[in-house]
Structure formats: C-alpha cells, structure tokens
Amino acid sequence: MRTTHPPSRTTSNRFGLSLLEVMLAVSIFTMSMAAIYQLIAIGYRNTIDSRLQTQAIVRAESKISEVIANADLMQTTAASPFEEDASTSISGTWTWSLTVSPWEVDATMVNLELTTQYETADGTPAAVFTLRRLVRDPQAIADLQAEQEAALSEL
Q1: Of 35, 112, 105, residue with least CA distance to 75
Q2: What is the pLDDT of residues 12-25, one digit of tens each?
Q3: Which terminus, N or C, of the chain has the lesser number of Cβ atoms within 10 Å?
Q4: Total number of domains constituting the chain
Q5: Which residues, other chains included, contact 77 with Cβ-Cβ below 8 Å and sequence gap of 6+?
Q6: Is residue 1 part of a domain?
Q7: 133-144: per-residue pLDDT in tens?
C-alpha cells in the first residue's frame, strides 16, 4: 500500500516575491545609490579643487617669472587682478599680491613672496598658493656696477 504525504510548505512552488522581499531589495538599492551619489559628488568637488590649485600654481609661476624678468615690477603690490582675466566672464576672481623684502644675509638679494588667490562669486577663497623666490636685487647689482665703473675710471 502506498501512503501519500500531504504537500509541505517548504517544497511548495513559489512564483513570485513577497512584498517584504521587494521592499527590502528597494531599500538596499536606494541606500546603495545614495552612497554612490555621495562618492561622485566628493570626487567632483576634489576635481574642481585640484584644477583650481593647479591653476594657482601655474599663475604664480608665470607671474613671478614676469616680475623677475621686469625689474620695474619688483615692488610690493597689494591684491591685483590678472590682466588676462579682465575680458573673460568667469564666476570667480583671480588675484595676485607680491611682497618684496630684503634678505638679511646678503644685501644684493631680495626675497619675493607671490600669492595667487581664487575667490568665488560670493567672496570665499577657493584656492590659495604662495610662491617664494630668492633673487638678486637688480637695483643693488646696478649700484655695484656703477661703483666698480667709477673706481675703474678713477684709476
């Protein structure tokens, strides 16, 4: 004789997901997407900051080379806008300032400290870079050459 067993609940065929399973899957997906969005936003912000810092470095190198090449510019200057930015319409402002101070060790040397700064439209600084260079003072060199020429002409 054959005995038949009643169908158990564990072996029954399931054709779909319960509402609880669907809600759990949707909530896990939503939290994962929120975390991914935050990572993308942080990456974007870091990219912008890195780009501004790179521009600040390039602008400082360019401006200090210009100052070294032109002795007339080698004087302390308050925050001044870059000339090439005057015609462009950007959301922020690039400025530079220069501090010229004598070097205590050698009177023919000067210490140049050039700072570039980018301020957003609301006035908050977004990127700041300071570059320091020790260069020969062109005026001191000219004075020394004049003294040497005067001494030679007296002989």
Answers
A1: 112
A2: 566 788 999 999 99
A3: N
A4: 1
A5: 96, 97, 98
A6: no
A7: 999 888 877 788
